[in-house]
């Protein structure tokens, strides 16, 4: 059960569930390992699994024929599923790619939904997850519209220093919507 330690800890601190419900939920998760550069999610695809990042680094991004724009990175144990696609049976607009070798815990949507019906606390997990997701998305949108690249980089230094350690700088530049050269100048000014 060592590969379930992080997800158990996550549920105990973030979304307390009754002990029986948690044990049953965890028993259905399967461990998958992906090499660096693996596509976990592609646009126009529907999320069929609830996925939890156990170890490794993932980037989430939008892509057009002209460019890719990073919108999030996952560097610590947490759920990485596009919840909107997962819960609404709709296609995603996002891509996810592993930046390192990763270990992911997965449970099929049909199994998860059966557990939601069986345990009332499962609904609170989804509701709270959506609330957190919306809050994060609104903050991200607000910051990208109102703050300069310097200010956004300073926030990364304070709130996401592990991103700056684990993620290549050109991906950070894309996240900040600037060129790698501009990021280099910002880093020189701020340090």
Automatic annotation (TrEMBL):
Signal peptide: none annotated. It comes from the Bacteria. SUPFAM superfamilies: cAMP-binding domain-like (SSF51206). Residues 17-116 form the Cyclic nucleotide-binding domain. This is cAMP-binding protein. It comes from Tenacibaculum holothuriorum.
């Amino acid at each position: 059960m060592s590969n379930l330690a992080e997800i158990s800890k996550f549920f105990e601190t973030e979304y307390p569930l009754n002990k029986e419900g948690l044990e049953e939920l965890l028993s259905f998760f399967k461990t998958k390992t992906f090499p660096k550069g693996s596509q976990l999610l592609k646009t126009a695809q529907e999320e069929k699994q609830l996925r939890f990042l156990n170890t490794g680094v993932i980037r989430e991004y939008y892509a057009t024929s002209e460019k890719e724009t990073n919108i999030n990175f996952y560097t610590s144990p947490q759920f990485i599923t596009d919840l909107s696609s997962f819960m609404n049976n709709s296609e995603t607009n996002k891509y996810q790619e592993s930046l390192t070798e990763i270990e992911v815990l997965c449970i099929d949507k049909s199994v998860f939904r059966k557990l939601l019906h069986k345990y009332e606390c499962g609904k609170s997990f989804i509701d709270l997850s959506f609330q957190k997701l919306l809050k994060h998305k609104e903050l991200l949108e607000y910051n990208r519209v109102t703050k300069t690249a310097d200010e956004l980089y300073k926030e990364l230094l304070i709130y996401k220093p592990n991103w700056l350690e684990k993620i290549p700088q050109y991906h950070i530049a894309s996240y900040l919507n600037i060129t790698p050269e501009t990021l280099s100048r910002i880093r020189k000014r701020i340090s």
